[in-house]
Amino acid sequence: MSTIITQAPDRTLRCHSSETPSPGEGEVLVKILASPVNQLDLLVLAGKYPVQPKHKYNGESIVGYDGVGEVIACGAGVTSLAPGDSVIPSQFGVGTWRSQAAVKATMLQKISTPKAAEFACLLRMAVGPGYFLVEEIRNLKPGEFIIQNAGTSAVAQYVTQFANRRGVGVIHVIRDRPDADADAVKKALLSLGAAEVFTESEIVDKVATLKQSKRITLALDSVYGASGSTILAALSDEGTFVHMGFLGGVNGKLQLGPQDLFGRRLTLRGFRGSAHMAARTPEEQGKLLDFWVDLFNKDQLKLPALGLSFVDWKPTDGGQAVFDAVKRAQEAKLGQRKQVLIFK
User: Fold this and answer.
1) Which residues, other chains included, contact 291 with Cβ-Cβ below 8 Å and sequence gap of 6+?
2) What CA–CA distance (Å, rounded) separates 339 from 14?
3) DSSP labels for 4-27?
4) Which of 2, 23, 166, 304 could be cross-linked to 27 through a Cys-Cys bond (beta carbons 3.0 to 4.6 Å apart)?
5) How far apart are the first and last CA of the chain?
6) Hey, is 167 helix, strand or coil?
7) Where do the DSSP E strands lie in 234-313?
8) pLDDT value, residue 258
9) Is a pLDDT exceeding 90 seen at residue 246?
10) Rounded to an integer, what distance in angstroms lies between the CA atom of residue 136 and that of residue 154?
C-alpha cells in the first residue's frame, strides 16, 4: 500500500491510502526515504508559489517538493536508472509527501548513495544554496568574513561549513532568546565552525568594532528590515549584500543611504539557489551533487549542528504526524528546527 498527502482546493491537507502504483513506460517506482518540510512547501500550500504540483490523486494536488528515495522498479524504456539507485527530484512539483511514487525517470536525478538519507533530502534546498553563496557570489579570499542573519537555519550552517573550507570566517546573527537558550545555540554554531555568534540585539552594538577588526566582504540577508540593515552596515567597503528572503516580513525597510553605493561602493543582489543549479547541464548537476554526498560520506560535511526534527511517517495515523509538522512549520516558533519526514 501507498500513503499519499494531498491538498484539496480549499487548501485542506488530506491523507489517502492506495494500492502500490506500477511504473508505466518511461517511469520508475520510487520508495521515498525522507522528505523535509521546507519554507518552499509552506509557500506552495499557501498558494504563493508559481510552480504548481505536477501530480494529482483523486483530483487533489500531491504535495512535497524535496526529498530522497530509492528506485524499486523501472518501467519499459528506462535506461538511466536501475533498482537500488538513490534519487532526488530534478525539478519542483514532483510530490514527495507519499510513501511510494511512480514518476517519469526524467523528473529524477540519480545521486551517489549517502550514508544518511536525511542529508540527501537537504541537498537542493540547504546544501546547494550554502555552496553557491560561498563559491559563486564573489571571489572570497582566506581571512575574509561573511556575516549572515537567520543564523540557525540549515542554509546558514552549510554556508559556514563551505566557507571554512576556503579559510573564510562566518559571523552568525540569531534571533533574541533567553540567555540559556542563546548560549546553547552559540555553543552549537561555534562547534560547527562559526567565528562569532551574536543575537539581533547584541549585533547592533558590535557593528563598529567588527568593521574595525575584520574585513567583512559578504552579507547574507534572509530576514530583511532592521536585521538586514544591520548586517549591511557591517560590510566593509566594496562588500556584497545578498538578499535571500523575508523571514522578518515584507513590510520592513532596508536602510540604504547614498554613501553605501557611492562612497562605500557596495554591491546589492538577489539570490535564488535554483537558478545556480539550473545554469548547469544535467551531467554537471550530477557531478556536483555527488561531490557533496562524497564530502558527507567522508565526514567533511556534517548535518546541521543544531539538529533536525525527525517526524516518523505513520501510515496508520491518517496523516496526523504530517499535519502537525506542517502546523509547527507555519507557526515558526523560536527554536523550531527543520523538520524531516522519515518513511519507514
Assistant:
1) none
2) 19
3) EEEE-TTS-EEEEEEPPP---TTE
4) 23
5) 13
6) coil
7) 240-243, 267-270, 309-313
8) 85
9) no
10) 19
Other CB atoms within 10 A of residue 315 CB: 14
pLDDT at residue number 261 = 87
The pLDDT assigned to 307 comes to: 85
pLDDT confidence tier of residue 316, bands split at 50, 70 and 90:
confident
pTM of the model: 0.94
- Residue 300 and residue 305: Cα distance in Å, rounded? 13
* Residue pLDDT, tens place only, 95-121: 999 999 999 999 999 999 999 999 999
> Could you give the maximum distance between any two Cα atoms of the chain, in Å?
65
For cell 544518511, what's the residue? 116
Dist CA 237 CA 215 (whole Å): 9
Q: Which residue has the cell 516518523?
A: 312
C-alpha to C-alpha distance for 229 and 102, rounded to whole angstroms = 47
Q: pLDDT per residue over 22-48, tens digit each?
A: 999 999 999 999 999 999 999 999 999
Q: 86 near 67, Cβ under 8 Å?
A: no
User: Residue 337 has which C-alpha cell?
Assistant: 528546527
Taken in order 98, 103, 106, 111, the sign of the CA dihedral is positive
On whether the CB atoms of residues 31 and 343 are closer than 8 A, the answer is yes
- 123 residue type, one letter: L
Q: Could you identify the residue written with the cell 542554509?
A: 155
Report d(CA 109, CA 107) in Å as an integer.
7
